[in-house]
Design a protein that fits this description.
alpha/beta, globular, 3 helices, four-stranded parallel beta sheet, 4 strands
């Protein structure tokens, strides 16, 4: 069992699916997006969490509230001691150093 999970957050982007193929070799992958997002060709080896948009008025400078909402929804599904969050439009070909840094420093937050 892996000790790290990956949250791929935000509006669907093809890079998220490509990235998930690599990230799965390290641990579980969770996609977290909005309920109106169409996610074609979704990899069933990953978990898909869809959130409803929040109701009411709130300050949302640079969409931080939206980002935090879907990130939290993904974090609520994590079953491992560690998690790394990526945007869905990001892709990194080698995350091994980041995984090592996060898992070797359990009392620190790596950003």
């Amino acid at each position: 069992m892996s000790n790290i999970s990956f949250i791929i957050q935000g509006p669907f982007h093809e890079n998220g699916l490509k990235a998930a193929q690599h990230y799965k070799s390290f641990g579980p992958v969770i996609f977290s997006c909005w309920s109106d997002n169409n996610v074609p060709n979704f990899d069933t080896d990953c978990l898909l969490i869809k959130s409803d948009y929040p109701r009411g008025h709130f300050h949302n400078f640079m969409n931080v509230f939206y980002q935090a909402t879907t990130t939290l929804a993904g974090l609520c599904e994590v079953k491992t001691p560690f998690a790394i969050k990526f945007r869905c439009d990001e892709i990194y070909s080698d995350i091994s150093r980041l995984v090592e840094k996060v898992t070797s420093n359990p009392n620190k937050m790596v950003t």
